[in-house]
Design brief:
This protein has 157 residues and is an alpha+beta fold. Helices cover 27% and strands 39% of the residues.
């Protein structure tokens, strides 16, 4: 005899696998800087108006999250460590994680009730490729597992 709780567990597991299999990722590539990243298009469904300078795009979700993917010229000749120091000194946000490598930087923390996650790649051609993900603290369980996959997909020439 199969216990009802076991049947419920199997049904929920099947449903979650079915939903994950139907989610279509979208890879956006910025024509101006070559910045690209992949994200779940079924979550970030509302593409915002592009800026006039063509440096990137932003998408919104129905539950208040946003994802921006962009490139820029490194006009201030920043390094990952110098941008990290600037972010730490600013004190405008609660920075809970900050790590810099030779050509990359990750910043994460809180802006009030919003979680932010930023990843930057410093390209050899004098460009910075960036990704900024923001979502309500109340949705951490949904977005925290997505953050790593989206962030590691960030690429640039």
């Amino acid at each position: 005899m199969v216990k009802p709780i076991r049947v419920l567990f199997i049904a929920l597991a099947f449903l979650s696998l079915t939903q994950a299999a139907t989610a279509e990722p979208l890879t956006y590539t910025n024509e101006r800087f070559g910045t690209s990243a992949t994200f779940p298009a079924d979550i970030f469904t509302q593409q915002q108006e592009p800026p006039e300078n063509g440096d990137g795009l932003t998408w919104q979700s129905a539950d208040g999250a946003s994802l921006a993917i962009f490139g820029s010229y490194n006009a201030l000749d920043e390094t990952p460590r110098s941008r990290q120091a600037t972010a730490k000194a600013a004190g405008e946000r609660e920075l809970t994680y900050s790590k810099a490598g030779k050509n990359w930087l990750v910043l994460s923390g809180f802006e009030g009730n919003v979680v932010f996650y930023e990843r930057y790649l410093f390209g050899a051609s004098g460009t910075v490729h960036g990704l900024v993900l923001k979502y309500p603290r109340s949705h951490k369980a949904k977005y925290d597992p997505l953050t790593g996959k989206i962030a590691t997909s960030l690429k640039g020439p």
